[in-house]
Amino acid sequence: MIPRRRNSKKGRVEIIPMIDVMLFLLVFFIMITLQMITDKGLKLQLPTSSTAKELPHPHFVINIEKTGKVVVKGKEMTLDQLQSFLSTDGDVEHTQVTIAADKVVPFQQFVHVMDTCQKAGVTQIGIATKAT
């Protein structure tokens, strides 16, 4: 009688689960990257300044349009809504805000927005200008 050899199964590398994991990682990194894209704001004609310098990217860019509308992250807000939005940000003392006002916006409107930020507790306020 001839001894029979056992059929040994070879180990296989399953590629489909690996593809699933790689696609999951790709989607994960794309979603994280999209959240890291900065808020570009609106197209405004900013006032010019000869001493303008680059500031680190703020948490929020508050845009004041020619019509006086206040826009944050693509949403139009009243000053009361802006104050409650900023005050619920968590650590308000470390919240950085940049105000970008069109150059034809009355200065009083700019001051109202700045006052609203200070009422919310924001102390780090920048002003957006265009370098000459």
Explain what this protein looks like in three dimensions.
The chain has 132 residues and is α/β, with parallel strands linked by helices. It has a domain at 48-131: Nucleotidyltransferase, domain 5 (2-Layer Sandwich). 33% of the residues lie in helices and 19% in strands. The chain has a 5-stranded mixed sheet. Strands 1-7 form a two-stranded parallel ribbon. The radius of gyration is 27 Å and the shape is elongated.
Short recap of the structure:
Helix content is 33%, strand content 19%.
Average pLDDT metric: 81
Outline the low-pLDDT stretches.
none
CATH fold descriptor of one domain: Nucleotidyltransferase, domain 5
The fraction of residues in strands falls at: 15-25%
Query: Over the alpha carbons, how many angstroms does the gyration radius reach?
Result: 27 Å
Strand order of the largest sheet: 4-3-2-5-6
Secondary structure layout plus pairing:
Elements (H helix, E strand, L loop, with lengths): L15 H21 L11 E2 L10 E5 L5 E3 L2 E3 L1 H9 L8 E6 L5 H14 L3 E4 L2 E2 L1
Parallel strand pairs: 1-7, 2-5, 5-6
Antiparallel strand pairs: 2-3, 3-4
Helix pairs in contact: 2-3
Q: What keywords describe this structure?
A:
single chain; 132 residues; alpha/beta; Nucleotidyltransferase, domain 5; 5-stranded mixed sheet; two-stranded parallel sheet; protein transport; cell membrane; membrane; transport; Biopolymer transporter ExbD
